[in-house]
Amino acid sequence: MKIKNILVSLVAILALxxxxxxxxxxxxxxxxxxxxxxxxxxxxxxxxxxxxxxTDSWSIPxxxxxxxxxxxxGGAGTTTVTFSAAKTLDGRTTTVVIxxxxxTQNINVIQGLAVISPATCAEVxxxxxxxxxxxxxxxxxxxxxxxxxxxxxxxxxxxxxYGTVNSTGAYPKDSGGWGxxxxxxxxxxxxxxxxxxxxxxxxxxxxDVTVVKVNKSLIKIEEIDPEDAVLPVExxxxxxxxxxxxxxVYVTIPEDAKDWLSISSISGNTVVxxxxxxxxxxxxxxxxxxxxxxxxxxxTEQALTQKGAIIAATxxxxxxxxxxxxxxxxxxxxxxxxxxxxxxxxxxxxxxxxYVYGIGAxxxxxxxxxxxxxxxxxxxxxxxxxxxxxxxxxxxxxHISVIEVSIADFLTKPDDKNTYYMVTGTIDExxxxxxxxxxxxxxxxxxxxxxxxxxxxxxxxxxxxxxVAAKGLKVGDVLTVIGPKSTYKDVPQVNGGIYFxxxxxx
Length: 506
Hints:
By secondary structure, this protein is mainly beta. It folds into five domains: 3-111, Immunoglobulin-like, CATH 2.60.40.10; 118-215, CATH 2.40.50.200; 219-305, Immunoglobulins (Immunoglobulin-like), CATH 2.60.40; 311-400, CATH 2.40.50.200; 403-503, CATH 2.40.50.140. The protein contains six helices and 35 strands. The chain has a five-stranded mixed beta sheet with strand order 2-9-8-4-6. It has a five-stranded mixed barrel with strand order 11-12-13-15-14. Strands 25-26-27-29-28 form a five-stranded mixed barrel. The longest helix is centred in the first third of the chain and has 16 residues, at 3-18. The N and C termini lie far apart (75 Å).
């Protein structure tokens, strides 16, 4: 057992022996004081209380599901706080934070003694949250070197490591950086770690793990060409140069990539792949390289992406598409702005509406001068968040800046099929309900003819019909349409008004 675990166990035993009357001046803050910074509950369950003395209001914002704290907030003065937990078969620990007047006080809660035994990824996934596990697997990807976030995989599954710390609890950024002991491992290495399990938005994680052992892989990626591992639509060659201290090089191409990816040659430790032209959307795969030594197999992996054709789609087609890396081109009207800084917006065409999770980088939306009513063309991937479809990685290609004007101003504008206006008025007459030929008027009674009210951008043929019935438009409603100005038999008109919104009459 590591010294760290021995200390944790000793703390638990002392907490059980002395109860909660132990006074620890070292942990006192002037704003909030606790009678004990350690709370121990037996494996059979039960309750333990401490006192909180605060100079201001205080609260405990979050607790694990297995622990009940009452009360979880209070005011200035002395409050008795009770910690309760049900019976458990596994020891578990957590840290509770008390917030008071801008300061925080940590309370370490221990139920029983955590027994750390080796487990597989599958056993971690199936196990309870807050239990500490020791697991061994291969590093398959590193997400963040500053905090040590990475993926560990064994024969039974994959878990996410959310934070890696040294013996003092410091992350790589605060203790020498990635590549320094104990963070000296990379993709392909076999690593044994231990830490408590949690589940966040469905993802199983071990949090702030400590490294028990590193078994360096005998095979590594030394060089790749192209360097970004991204092949163009036309295809070509992808070259991987390896360093290998084992016997032989074995390459695995996933089944779903064998129809477009093949091995062109293997010369020593250099493998050349042939990538076929891509007529679909973006596609990617993960290549596995293995070598053997002393009866063990060592491996490393390399991701490969190939750009695909961009698929022009309606919003309805986009929403019906599967989540993936295929790039879609959508054109529609910005109907709502959820976050201007990041360009999180809703866009709609005649077939439906979708959420766009960001246009370009932070600030690009404002730099482009985009606003509700503008017609925008974006390229991005079909994503999903908690069951809600969305475009991710949206990139701006072009847009039409729509000019908002009054009916009186619209009538003074020159005819121009390439300039779009947003105009609002009260429906005065519905001349043709099928095509949506409607007269609008302003407060002064000035009328404007809209030659058609279409359901949205991009509607053609019969798709243009039926908007009046579909939207429930009627005389007296306030209607906003978008379209260019034209003149027919000396009568100015909105030439093909695109429905934007309406307010029903009372």
